[in-house]
Amino acid sequence: MDNPKINFFLPLLYLAWSDDLLTQKEFTVLQAFIHTQNWLSEAEKIDLLSKIDIASPPSRMELSQWKSAIDQKVLREHKSIFDISSAFYKNDSGDFELQFLKLENDLGILGAEAFGIFRPKTDTFTSKYQTEVRFDVQKLTAILDGQQAPIINKVKAIISRQEFQYETSTDIDVYRGKVYDWCKILADENLGNMAYPKKYGGGENIADYFAVMETLSYHDLSLVIKFGVQFGLWGMSIFSLGTEKHYAKYLKDVGSLQLPGCFAMTETHHGSNVKGLETTATYNHSNQTFTIHTPNPDAQKEYIGNAAMHGQMATVFAKLIIDGTDYGVNAFIVPLRDENMKTLRGITIGDCGQKTGLNGVDNGTIRFDNVSIPKENMLDRFASVNDNGEFESLIPSDNRRFFTMLGTLVGGRIGIPRSALAAAKSGLTIAIRYADQRRQFGPEGGSEVPILNYRMHQRRLLPLLAKSFAVHFGLQYLTQRYINKKDNEAQEIEALAAGMKSYATWHVRDTLQECREACGGKGYLSENRIGSLKNDTEIYTTFEGDNTVLMQLVAKNRLSEFRKQFGEMNALGIINYVFESAKTSISEKNPIATRRTDEIHLLSSEFHHEAFVYREKTILASAAKRLKSLIDSGLDSYDSFNVAQHQMLDVAQAYLERVVLEQFQLEVKNTDDLQCKAVLEKLHNLYALTQIEKNKGWFLEDGYMEAPKTKAIRKLVSQLCWDLRPDAVALTDAFAIPESCLAAPIAVRQL
Amino acid sequence: MDNPKINFFLPLLYLAWSDDLLTQKEFTVLQAFIHTQNWLSEAEKIDLLSKIDIASPPSRMELSQWKSAIDQKVLREHKSIFDISSAFYKNDSGDFELQFLKLENDLGILGAEAFGIFRPKTDTFTSKYQTEVRFDVQKLTAILDGQQAPIINKVKAIISRQEFQYETSTDIDVYRGKVYDWCKILADENLGNMAYPKKYGGGENIADYFAVMETLSYHDLSLVIKFGVQFGLWGMSIFSLGTEKHYAKYLKDVGSLQLPGCFAMTETHHGSNVKGLETTATYNHSNQTFTIHTPNPDAQKEYIGNAAMHGQMATVFAKLIIDGTDYGVNAFIVPLRDENMKTLRGITIGDCGQKTGLNGVDNGTIRFDNVSIPKENMLDRFASVNDNGEFESLIPSDNRRFFTMLGTLVGGRIGIPRSALAAAKSGLTIAIRYADQRRQFGPEGGSEVPILNYRMHQRRLLPLLAKSFAVHFGLQYLTQRYINKKDNEAQEIEALAAGMKSYATWHVRDTLQECREACGGKGYLSENRIGSLKNDTEIYTTFEGDNTVLMQLVAKNRLSEFRKQFGEMNALGIINYVFESAKTSISEKNPIATRRTDEIHLLSSEFHHEAFVYREKTILASAAKRLKSLIDSGLDSYDSFNVAQHQMLDVAQAYLERVVLEQFQLEVKNTDDLQCKAVLEKLHNLYALTQIEKNKGWFLEDGYMEAPKTKAIRKLVSQLCWDLRPDAVALTDAFAIPESCLAAPIAVRQL
After folding, report:
1. Are A355 and B526 inside 8 Å of each other by CB?
2. Which parts of the sequence belong to the Acyl-CoA oxidase C-alpha1 domain (chains A, B) (predicted)?
3. Which of B124, B8, B448, B101 is nearest to A631 (CA)?
């Protein structure tokens, strides 16, 4: 340890033995190098070679001593291993430094990287990064809650009570019982009847009803669904499809949970295609009754919430038959159990049993064996049987009438995505708090670093956080449109609701999946709730309509709107015209924009909006053109839609993204508080650019963007994630989820 | 109904009232049109207008009569609504047909599509498509099973026995007990000790051991993990890290499940970064013992399988301390419970409780309060304490020694992805059989169609099926490489295992998610098993190493290999050179290829391979260049890797995709049976093109492909899905999963 020439090699020797990447072959390389060094004496060479004999490694102690010796020589101005070696012994011969670099390279050592092992420790900027509060969290909460803040706070106060402590029993009966009891408390607080007319004891406030659904979703999701089945599906089916006599008879008891009931639409063989329901309601002229009947086992009602345990009645959807003529699907109130909860004659109820989630909801099957109900049990707002036993309706088409009926039930497609999004907010709050506190790995010799400081972790969580804000504003917009809808907007809003339900629930699925993984093993423990949040919302992509099927409905609506917009032109020429004009107008407008990569442009809301609109229009026109050419080529329209199904989904997706973007932009614009505005703007930019990045294949294919631009966008997305990282915890704080509801031990703040 | 001029309008009137898309505004359009028709008398106009009075709709009966009248007029040669109308009354005036088309358009009616409602019904090609058997299923099974067929069949026979009926209790103790009993049966069948040396009662057959893990995964996944913890982690840690004396003392009892044990590595605060473990093993010279101690609550062992109920001993990873010096992490056998299952003094065991899945495994926490163990309990293959109480090891670096130890445990990263893939095969078998039998929607007036005939449903499931075959062959390759590894291949194979574990388990996650949704409500019922398959494998992306962390290890290995490959050049010039040469060589080679869209080219394995290799090389060189320039700019290497983290994942991803593709291509090439070869080739093409489609943004950005080509690939992917649809059921049959294991009612074949 005192020959400087030998010590010249210490850094290399240390690397050779300590680095876990060197192979036997590389030791040979090192030996060969030493042999060729003429400035070393034979004795020195032998000494050195003895230190790289793979059969006789240095002792661990020796290795520690080398490291100490090196540490004493390293200076702040050193830039390479060669610099350190030269601090032991200076070899000035001509190409020696180059030879040395070649050796390093042959050993697979990346100079500057390996050098880091010896560099005096300073904090890296990655390790210094941390959470800050750069805006007023309460102000942001106020923006999110809007006018519903009072009811939201009321519900939060209720679900924070001791009696709402989570049920941890895995016994399904215990859990179902607890959920029922919770529902009763909520009914007693007048939350269940929130949407019903005041005349029947209700709150007559639909906006508040949705806010209740959403806020309850910070708590147990079985509770939300049980609540939604009772007060939404069962109660609102009476309100939407029935008439005064039904309201008077039932609504008060439904709203107080005196009369638990079901919404019995889906059958085993008919879920998405409810038009094909097979249950029959046959009119009996003799005694003015209907006979409700399940004609075959696959026509049983299935997945019916409240059926397995608590339901006393159900709104049953069945084909109305009068004198052998089928008048299409109508709705009837059918008693299931008596007041002692004994199942009535002709009714057979099954239990769906254990499910992936929502096990606090008693889903069941219902079969009817010639069950007789009085005539007044037909929910007769849209169709009725008159005193002569004749069918009457203002809507002559069975098809149209049925879809009009379904249209009145569209509220479910608002409550569900809002509930889902609340679950995603819980997941993000838990995962982001954990990522802010959990430390793992760090710079060589430094302390460990919060995992939220890692770029990939930011990339995994922050775009989902941004999108959650986007979807929040999108759902607020949907709610407002629904509440204030005019007659001629019904179809547009139904399509919007179907689309937003799909868009939001898919987002929630992806978010909770990512949150689980981002929390590692902790995310797998039930106590941290991410698993149940995921499992409970898992079915949200299916119920109120399978997302993929709904997206096709949305696309069909868009295509039909598209045709109407261009109604003044000759039909044959329209599609080509629109298609071509969209293309040319854009490329005329933006000759340079396809390549612009400056931040001012890439962060401008005009650029985002134009890109989203362009994409939406082009995809729509292209799908219309494709369908037309398929049908013109003689294909059946059913086959044609099937061939273009993939494109149909794109049509709907592009439409929804544009709608959501616009709402986010509007929200940023309307925000007065400068700090909130600033952070919302960043979130908006991240949402917008993440979607563009996701769709970059399309934009490049289309020519709307070129490679330098999409590359710049990728970089900017990473940068925005980095910039937002200090705000992440505060942003989830703005969701203001009650701590007792979050409950996850990993989400407990360490002060 | 007898004035032909009036009847001319019947098809339009029918559409107006039956179509559920017309709005009030559109009725006005129709009224205006009628007013302008001079060929109608005033009386006729009044009659017609009365039929489109929104306040007085036709009766449902009337609507039916219109439809019957129309149906009688429609002829096979009719092509439009105008044709049908003209069959009632012919109006020859000049531009009348054009006026009519304009009207249709104003009403938002897409001519040919609306016409479909009246067209005489013929089966559409979508509805006629169905399952066929076009290859010998057993031959394909033989290809998948390879040389392990005998052990696979043995295991299948065992898990098909009555005693392996699934446990449905939600009581965690019952479930854990059942899983233990199953393990005992497997041990009695000599499956547990399969990998151990014959000398200690084992089968000395690692290939068979992995096949056992894989095949068991068709049954309950808690069983697989419990089995893996006992015989793999616990047993193999003794075998890999211990020496003869440990083998003799423990292996037989471990293999027979006489001695249940744990693998206690992970701590609450150290999961991914196991180098930072804090548990200590302090050597006591006086009595030649080690004191195992948990220095703080967050250093407790966590998630340890077999700990909460059944484990009697554990391999504990702890920092070895001798005379105050820390010699890095080593492994020690520590007794936990006595033969009466009483926890020993100084040991505190906690229960991880309910988890998202795998509730049949008793994961727990372990804390050590100065627990004394004899010196011989140190697993001393790589390091030991000699009789003088001095540390001895052939590997001087603590770091390197630890990673060498970890390297011997890499088998877990082979067993886990193979187990996961088996779960995905179960999910796909269930979802594809269901999709083949479940009918929903259909052509107007026709019967409903299997949902697997829908393009989107094919798109959702078939690429995942293709990728499952690809991953299967990739994992076979990994297994072979592992079993036949040479010393200098260790690092490459460790990286391959880490990568394949991530690649496979992410694929499984995506697959089971899609299967759940593809089965709708049925997929949510526990009886159909998709939920538990998903939940049980959910943690596979975390255990044996978090996927995201592992992918970075893979990338670092690739970067280091990359540097070594070009070792003969001057270090400074290499990266730029490689980067540029890769670019130019490709563009020189393929001046036209960037635009080729013919099927011969797009379906050629040469094209696929070149594209995958090009992508891998370019991404690797680009990441190397980026890192170099970040480090050269003065950034700490830790910061640099963080900045480039996103690219690191791409490096690993591109590498794994290329490896998997190559194995799939080799398998196709080596298949003799022509029918099997044909279907494997189609699956291979679907795998290859789906990955290219997924990465099309990158290929377009890079310029390796241009838009016409990526568009042609998208079309071809849809076409391949369609082509493979008839084979889908047979392809899942080739997995040959025992029916009693599949168990899902929706997967029962309807004969």
Report:
1. yes
2. 407-556
3. B124
